[in-house]
Amino acid sequence: MVAACDYKRVGDGDTGPNTGGMGSFSPPLPQHWNAAIESQVRSAIMEPVTQGLVNMGCPYRGLLYLGMMLTTDGPRVVEFNCRLGDPETQVILPRLETDLAQVLLATARGELEGMKIEWDSRACVGVVAASGGYPASYTTGYAISGIDAVDQDAIVFHAGTSLADDATVTAGGRVLTVAALGDTLEQARATAYDNIKRITFKDGFYRNDIAAL
Fold first, then answer.
1. 114 has a pLDDT exceeding 90
2. 3-state DSSP call for residue 169?
3. Which of 1, 63, 106, 168 has its CA 20 to 30 A from that of 100?
4. CB atoms within 10 A of CB 183
5. Is pLDDT of 14 > 90?
6. Alpha carbons 144 and 17: distance in angstroms, whole number
7. CB contact at 8 A, 170 and 141
8. C-alpha count within 13 angstroms, C-beta hemisphere, residue 121
9. By its UniProt entry, which SMART domains does this protein fall under (predicted)?
10. Is the dihedral of CA 97, 100, 104, 109 positive or negative?
11. SS3 assignment, position 167
12. pLDDT of amino acid 51
């Protein structure tokens, strides 16, 4: 899989408490992710971890998500997840041109080696709309409007939503993500924000600085 950058703090300028993620973009900027850094992460982190699992008698087949931070002392692991990361996945999968089902099937069968996986070279930006009060206490059940007004070239990922009397309502802290592709990061960002502002619900909010570089 390709890499992505995410935004953990709830407020603009990386202020406020940590969240599950308020937005993301892919690919990262070259100064944050390049061939040298990727090689370092692969050799110093990913390969030792996966080899260690083999040595323990439990070789891993699946998605192993590495959350990390770049520091002055090099990459540092924050977490591993045995699943796709959220919201990073929402800007990675739109760039995947190869059939995801075929990639997952090859992984499960141990036939991934040699499989050519194609990626869209365009950038993707995703912005999360959250319930007022998140990541602390918040109220749910508010009607969501504007989803039908989103452009066809933007994607709405539902997270904390549900149906009530045929209406889509809020049902969680992070309610939904609007993601969009663009020839440049700036174009992807503009499309994502142009569309997320069409979606409204009581007390809803989102960061205004996702991918603002």
1. no
2. strand
3. 168
4. 10
5. yes
6. 25
7. yes
8. 1
9. GARS_A (SM01209), GARS_C (SM01210)
10. negative
11. strand
12. 97
If DSSP states are collapsed to H, E and C, what string results for 77-137?
Answer: EEEEECCCCCCCHHHHHHHECCCHHHHHHHHHHCCCCCCCCCECCCEEEEEEEECCCCCCC
Q: What percent of the chain has pLDDT over 70?
A: 100
Q: Which two tokens stand for residue 119?
A: 């990626």
What contacts 73, CB < 8 A, 6 or more positions away? none
Residue range 157-189, pLDDT digits in tens: 999 999 999 999 999 999 999 999 999 999 999
Q: What is the dihedral of CA 39, 41, 45, 46, to 10 degrees?
A: -70
| pTM of structure | 0.94
User: Distance (Å, rounded) from C-alpha 23 to C-alpha 10?
Assistant: 10
Q: What residue type is assigned to position 115 of the chain? A: M
Residue 85: pLDDT over 90: no
If we measure between CA atoms, which residue out of 182, 172, 180, 173 comes closest to residue 197? 180
Count of beta carbons in the 10 Å neighbourhood of residue 170: 26
- The contacts of residue 35 (CB under 8 Å, 6+ apart) are none
Tokens 């109220």 locate to: 139
What is Dmax (Cα atoms) for the chain? Answer: 54
8-state DSSP, 4: -
CA proximity to 22, closest of 210, 212, 213: 210
